[in-house]
Amino acid sequence: MRAIYLFKRDLRLEDNRGLCEASKNYKEIIPVFIFDPQIINQLKAQGKRLYYVLRAVEELSKGIKLYCFYERTEEAIRKVIRLSKAKALYTTSSYSWEGRERNEVIKRVCSEEGVKFVEVFDGFLVRPELVEPKKVYTHFYKEWLTHIDLQQCNTEDFIVPELPLPKLQDIREKLPVEHYDTFDPQECKKRLESYQFENYEKVRDYPALDLTSKLSPCIRFGIVSIREVFQKSYGRNEQFVKELAWREFWYHIALHFPQTRDLEFQEKRRGIRWENREDYLKAFLSGKTGYPFVDAGIRQLIEEKWLHNRMRMVLASFLTKVLLIDWRFGEVFFIEHLLDYDHVVNVGNWQWSASVGADPKPFRLFNPILQAQKYDPECTYIKKYLPELASLPCEWLQNPLKYKLPYYKPVVDYYERIKLAKERYIGHVPYPDSQGRTYEL
Predict the structure, then answer these.
(1) Residues near 313 by Cβ (< 8 Å), separated by ≥ 6?
(2) Quick one: 62 exposed, middle or buried, by C-beta within 10 A (0-12, 13-18, 19+)?
(3) Angle at 44 between CA 336 and CA 173, to 5 degrees
(4) What three-state secondary structure class fits 117?
(5) d(Cα 292, Cα 387) in Å, to the nearest integer?
(6) Radius of gyration (Cα) for the chain, nearest Å?
(7) Pair 92, 30: CB distance under 8 Å
(8) CA-based nearest residue to 311, from 330, 321, 327, 298
(9) Four-residue CA torsion sign, 55, 60, 64, 67
């Protein structure tokens, strides 16, 4: 008997639980990947992000005969079922909002076609539903550690039948991709094997250094097993493990508080009076805020489709706290550009940065002047992405409010805007000190 295996966010053969489970029960497996144009459009994945997925599928297809479609999921699944006469369809469980909706469609089609539908847990270290609902990350993390599942698997021998179904070469030219070579899926395994996790906490905050793991796209698309990532990092750097837990915390929030897909987690902050000024937003989206550190981050994101984590926080804080623009505009901006874009994680992080989401206790501020001075002390990062300013003294670039640069005028005065932001959030509060320390509000 035959079973279909639908690859989604698990683009690997090694330690792939869904494929392992299918191979235990069926000797003929029909591997399928669907480039669904509806999902591509919904997640704005055309261009370079889709090219990255294409490369990952190309790498996957080197190890297995893979049937590929560029059409709606429902239509593709019906074709495979009817042509193959398969008795079951296996795929991984989905916890993203779109993923759950997609799995419901697949489940319905299987039911209508008389095919068994099997979801297999993978892609996370802990099932999101195992941890009792938590609103604070530290509480979540403690319990999360007690549920980690590291059991790996190997596939049984199986045969992929030859069927008159399209392969990758048959649909490749139809895909709306744009060449991208900054990241390549085939480097994921090498990166995982060679990365010095011991140094992560010491170097992770300096955007000029290429010393973060850059494994996020690999994890996002399941090119490497999350269990292997954990085993490589555990005991070598707790902070890295905590970052893996943050990803799963946002999925925990999405599962238990589904309204946060479109609505602020904190009810008390659903009425913030955002300014949403068009000129401020335009300056931000084009990297012309007049703050070189901020603009360098925006340029990196647009050019490379990736952004250092420190800069993600700086940009998010600047947009929401300094420009007083609704976090949803930033979330959409990241959809359009981030290679490792994950809807659930992106929404969680943007709400966190805007101080409207889960784990919200501090009113977190990222002063772009102090951030530049501390984390880009030689202005290496700024000068890399703003080469037109490379000849200027570093202290000028770090503080555009003090020094008049031959550059875009700062769109706002950071210190004046922070006073306004605090009034908008909670009313009058003390002015930030010279060190830009975070206030507990």
Answers:
(1) 353, 364, 366
(2) exposed
(3) 120
(4) strand
(5) 11
(6) 23
(7) no
(8) 298
(9) negative
pLDDT band, residue 362 (cuts 50/70/90) = low
CA distance 127 to 148: 8
Q: Which amino acid is at 5?
A: Y
Secondary structure class of 89 (helix, strand, coil): strand
Largest Cα span, the chain: 74
pTM above 0.90, yes or no: yes
Cα 201 to chain centroid distance, Å, stands at: 20
Which candidate, 251, 252, 272, places its Cα nearest to that of 327? 272
pLDDT(432) > 50: no
Percent of the chain with pLDDT over 90: 90
Q: What is the average pLDDT score of the chain?
A: 94
* Residues 349, 351, 355, 356, Cα dihedral to 10°: -150
Assigned token pair, 360: 């919200």
DSSP code of 47?
Answer: B
Which residue in 347, 396, 350 sits closest to 373, CA to CA?
396
Measured between alpha carbons, how far is 284 from 335 in angstroms, rounded to an integer? 15
Beta strands 439-440; 67-69: pairing state: unpaired
Distances (CA, A) of 407 to 220, 314, 380, 394, 412: 37, 20, 18, 14, 14
Render 336-390 in DSSP notation, one character per residue: HH-TT--HHHHHHHHHHHTT-SSS--EE----HHHHHHHH-TT-HHHHHH-GGGT
Using DSSP, state whether 91 is helix, strand or coil: strand
Q: Is 323 helix (H, G, I), strand (E, B) or coil?
A: coil
Q: Where are the alpha helices (DSSP H) in 172-291?
A: 188-194, 200-203, 216-220, 226-233, 238-256, 278-285
Residue type, 233: S
DSSP letter string, 159-194: B----S--BHHHHGGGS-B----SS-GGGHHHHHHH
Residue entry with tokens 């992560």: 200
Query: Where would I find the H helices in 31-173?
Result: 37-42, 48-61, 73-84, 97-113, 137-145, 168-171
pLDDT digits (tens, 9 = 90+) for 306-327: 999 999 999 999 999 999 999 9
